[in-house]
Design a protein that fits this description.
The chain is an alpha+beta fold. It is 19% helix and 42% strand. The strands form five sheets. It has a six-stranded antiparallel beta barrel. Strands 12-14-15-18-17-16 form a six-stranded antiparallel beta barrel. The protein has a five-stranded mixed β-sheet with strand order 25-35-28-29-33.
Length: 602
């Protein structure tokens, strides 16, 4: 047989194999080429009545095509020079599901040319498949060449864009109809509904739909993206994961465009990008959504702006490693997570991850006293030390909730500092669980005598009432300063950690201007007193000047008068009493209460 005939048959067989493969995906070779190198249709060429189609995944890895018809173009709809194409989606699947969470970013083609990305849905209680389309020029130009990252806070709610009466009537929609961004599924793998309920108020309002999902093993094919595939942002990974999922609009070399609207409008960012696989699409009258598994990391999400999320294929950015150990008298469980380093996201993600890792753990049980220790290691700074104890409470709040809230508060204070960006190297936490509720309230306190001489040491006794236990007396001492003036009255404060923290730093200190450097803030965090100790503080009637994190005692009255008359900007504050000494008694459980005693110096 001639050699040319053999080659011809081989090429024919290869072509038929490729055709069969593309057909199994619902794509023709021409369609695949169009998706990879699409011709662009400018917004100026879009007209009402134009017929088109879009691509998305409803299940598995199969990219499916559905039809649509242009209703009209809404100029300046999202903002100045930010127009939207309004379209009616057609076909049995989209007419059954409506516009689906996770469909945002689906590439839209008119006259065979790429015209935009699905981004908005009709925001009323209906499955009517009316969608808004972000024009493709706005998607591809979503990152201005010199645009800085926005510094405004996260959007507090989903924006809604009302349709004019004329547009509503033309589309056969009720008066007052509005479009809103298609929700982005936030996929929680390894998280239980109880965790999501506790933090629902912090997740709602950002256009995120909390959905349970899973993870898929990384594959070398994960980075081979085409328009219509699913990808998204990784927020947490490890023994549990949190990721978003959108549809890919276009891929140009190593640049990926997806979503067609912002994730959280975070601006220029560095978040891991991962491939997503659709398990199935859940149809719902309230909110249809895709159920997805998150695959391997494939690059970095680099920007999150009004008209698109963009990413770059390749290496993923580094994340913050979090190691959590739960120890009981009979067992110990270790968990590991990696969390994104972002000032707006990290505090909440740390709290959600810790709460889930702690409470959804076979070693955890309600009705136990929890002792939290650990440290947050920071790049270029001393670590933040963590040490607190939490006892069960009588309401329906989970006993483990104070631990994530404490960590969220610490990270909130670190990331909200106005001095320099915080770079977290790692987080290491250990929770020791002891059966029962171990807590104490201060019932009474007394000094061994009502007067003393300078330099003398006095015993202080405190009556404590343990939770459902017999009252007990604890004893410590206070030392009277040698320089204490005779005839003066000293103040002895018997209290819990919180009250002594505030009394010794001024009651307005924590709401004031605070320290002026990150090192000072870390020092303040590390010197805050622990809540499982009983404290006795001795205050003398000499003014103290608080200047940022410094305590300047025995300031001359002449200088105090000047400061009072001309308050200085910043963290300067005058206290009428100075903390001359303190003692503490570790009790192994939270302490609450306050008693004030007075001592005459003879």
């Amino acid at each position: 047989m001639p050699k040319t005939n053999t080659l011809s048959r081989s090429r024919t067989a290869l072509y038929l194999t490729l055709v069969a493969l593309f057909a199994s995906l619902g794509l023709s070779p021409a369609t695949l080429r169009a998706q990879q190198q699409p011709e662009i249709l400018p917004l100026s060429k879009v007209r009402p009545g134009m017929q088109g189609y879009a691509y998305t995944i409803f299940a598995g890895d199969q990219i499916e095509k559905f039809d649509l018809e242009v209703i009209g173009v809404l100029d300046n709809f999202l903002g100045p020079k930010q127009s939207i194409i309004l379209a009616q989606l057609k076909g049995p699947k989209v007419e059954h599901t409506g516009v689906v969470a996770g469909m945002s970013g689906s590439p839209v083609y008119l006259e065979g040319k790429l015209a935009g990305a699905l981004s908005l849905k009709l925001g009323i209680f209906t499955k009517e498949p009316i969608a808004g389309i972000t024009p493709i020029q706005d998607v591809l130009n979503s990152v201005p060449s010199s645009a800085p990252a926005p510094t405004s806070a996260l959007q507090s709610s989903l924006p809604q864009f009302g349709l004019s009466q004329e547009t509503s009537l033309r589309a056969g929609l009720p008066s007052g109809s509005a479009l809103e961004p298609i929700e982005t599924p936030l996929v929680f793998s390894g998280f239980q509904p109880a965790t999501l309920r506790q933090f629902a108020s912090q997740l709602e309002g950002y256009g995120l739909v909390a959905a349970q999902g899973g993870t898929a093993k990384p594959s070398p094919q994960d980075a081979h993206l085409v328009a219509g595939d699913m990808a998204g942002m990784v927020l947490v990974q490890g023994d549990a994961s949190i990721s978003s999922a959108c549809t890919v609009t276009a891929v140009q070399a190593d640049r990926v465009y997806l979503c067609g609207h912002p994730f959280m409008n975070l601006g220029d960012i560095q978040l891991p990008m991962a491939r997503s696989q659709v398990v199935t699409t859940l149809s719902s009258d309230l909110a249809s959504t895709k159920i997805v598994n998150v695959g391997g990391s494939i690059g970095t999400i680099t920007s999150d702006h009004l008209t698109a999320v963009t990413g770059k294929l390749g290496a993923a950015p580094s994340m913050i490693p979090l190691d959590l150990t739960l120890h009981t008298s009979t067992t110990e469980k270790k968990l590991h997570f990696d969390i994104v380093n972002h000032p707006k996201l990290t505090p909440t993600l740390v709290a959600v991850t810790i709460f889930n890792g702690l409470t959804q753990n076979s070693a955890y049980g309600e009705g136990t006293t929890l002792h939290l220790t650990g440290e947050i290691r920071l790049q270029g700074h001393a670590p933040v030390q963590i040490d607190n104890t939490f006892a069960p409470i009588d309401n329906m709040t989970p006993d483990g909730m104070p631990i994530p809230l404490t960590m969220q508060n610490v990270f909130g204070r670190l990331f909200s500092n106005t001095f320099e960006p915080v770079k977290v190297d790692s987080i290491s936490l250990r929770v020791e669980s002891a059966p029962g509720r171990k807590s104490f309230s201060i019932e009474s306190a007394w000094l061994e005598k009502g007067e003393a001489a300078p330099g003398e040491t006095l015993r202080v006794r405190v009556l404590l009432h343990p939770y459902r236990g017999a009252p007990r007396v604890e004893e410590t001492t206070v030392h009277i300063p040698e320089q204490a003036a005779r005839g003066t009255t000293l103040h002895v404060l018997v209290s819990d950690a919180d009250f002594l923290n505030r009394a010794s730093h001024g009651f307005g200190f924590f709401g004031g201007s605070g320290p002026t450097g990150l090192d000072q803030l870390i020092s303040l965090l590390n010197h805050e007193r622990r809540n499982d100790r009983l404290y006795v503080g001795l205050f003398v009637p000499s003014p103290t000047l608080l200047w940022e994190d410094k305590e300047l005692t025995n300031i001359p009255l002449s200088q105090i008068s000047v400061i009072d008359a001309h308050p200085a900007p910043g963290g300067m504050q005058v206290l009428r009493e100075s903390l001359a000494g303190e003692a503490s008694i570790p009790l192994g459980g939270p302490v609450t209460g306050i008693i004030s005693l007075y001592l005459q110096i003879r």
